[in-house]
Structure formats: C-alpha cells, structure tokens
Amino acid sequence: MNGFAPDENPCAYRDALGSFATGVTVVTVPSADGPVGITANSFASVSLEPPLVLWSPAKASKRFAYFHQAPHFAIHVLDNHQRAVCDGFTRDKHAFDGLDWITGDNGVPNIHGCLARFECTLDAAHDAGDHVIIVGRVNHAFFRDGQPLLFQGGRFVGTEG
C-alpha cells in the first residue's frame, strides 16, 4: 500500500476514493424547466431519528442550480438492471422519456422500478469544498428486494448482463 498527500497527488486521491464501492442513485426535483434528474453516488444515511439522508452535488455541475437549494427532492436507489436509467441522467437532466414515473408530492418526479426511493424535504445544506452536502428529512420511503447498481474503480460492478 502506497501513501501520498492528497493535495500533491489528486489523481491518486480520486483513485483511492474509487476503491470504495457505492450504490448509484438518481436525484430528482421539479423545476420551471420541467422535471430534472441527476445521477449521484454520494448518497448516505445520516440519522434514524429524525430520518435524515444526504447527498452531495458538485458545484461545477451544470445542474447544480436546480439542486443545491431545492426545497423538495427524491433520491432513487437504482436496481442493478437500471444501468440505462443511470446513463440517461448522466447525459441529460430531462432523461424521463420512456421511464415509468409520476409526479409525486410537491411536484417531485418519482421514478418507478427503483430498489428504494426517499422523498425528502431540504433540512440543511453545508458548503464542503467543491461540493455541497445536502441533508434531507425523509417524508416517505419505499423499498423492495433486489440487488443495487454498484460503481467502483471507475466501472459498474456486479451488474446483470
């Protein structure tokens, strides 16, 4: 195992972070431009009481303005068969065409077929370097059995087909 200073070797730092497998989510919000979504792997649970989760959009993202202060949003944990959903929202903020989705509470787009969905109200936003940590209070949660879509080391792992 090699040691390094992250400030001196940011590529190695990114690679080290990439060794941790993460689930893949799509975060959705309503907007004046219609429903908007973004693929994110920065999702984590925060608290059971009260029910809080977090995710962290990059400030440099072209979609940042839609998300950093959205009062309501949904975080969708993707199933391992939903790689196309992930890819769609990686490329296009309006990748809802062809998806099974509805408009939920507070106008938030809710995508069907996901492994889990957390419908949230913004609780806090914290500046964190080149990202913002968004903490959401979970108003409704849904889940089903299945295997998550996982990303590790710059690639998807454990996916079907």
Keywords:
14% helix; mainly beta; seven-stranded antiparallel β-sheet; 40% strand; 161 residues; 3 helices
Commentary on this structure:
The protein is mainly beta. It has three helices and twelve strands, in the order H-E-E-E-E-E-H-E-H-E-E-E-E-E-E. The chain has helices at 10-18, 64-67, 83-91, and strands spanning 22-23, 25-29, 36-40, 44-47, 52-55, 72-77, 101-103, 109-111, 116-128, 131-143, 150-152, 155-157. The strands form three sheets. A seven-stranded antiparallel sheet has the order 3-2-6-9-10-5-4, with helices on one face. A three-stranded antiparallel sheet has the order 1-11-12, with no helix packed on it. The chain starts with 9 loop residues before the first helix and ends with a strand.
Please specify the SSE layout and strand pairing.
Layout: H1 10-18, E1 22-23, E2 25-29, E3 36-40, E4 44-47, E5 52-55, H2 64-67, E6 72-77, H3 83-91, E7 101-103, E8 109-111, E9 116-128, E10 131-143, E11 150-152, E12 155-157
Compact description:
The protein is mainly beta and 161 residues long.
Low-pLDDT stretches are none
Mean pLDDT: 93
Radius of gyration: 16 Å
Q: Tally the helices: what do you get?
A: 3
Strand order within the widest beta sheet: 3-2-6-9-10-5-4
Quickly give the structural class.
mainly beta
Principal-axes geometry comes out as: globular
Residues in helices, as a percent range: 10-25%
The biggest beta sheet is recorded as: 7 strands, antiparallel
Count of β-strands = 12
Percent of residues in beta strands? 35-45%
What's the helix-strand series?
A: HEEEEEHEHEEEEEE
Q: How far do the termini sit from each other? A: 33 Å
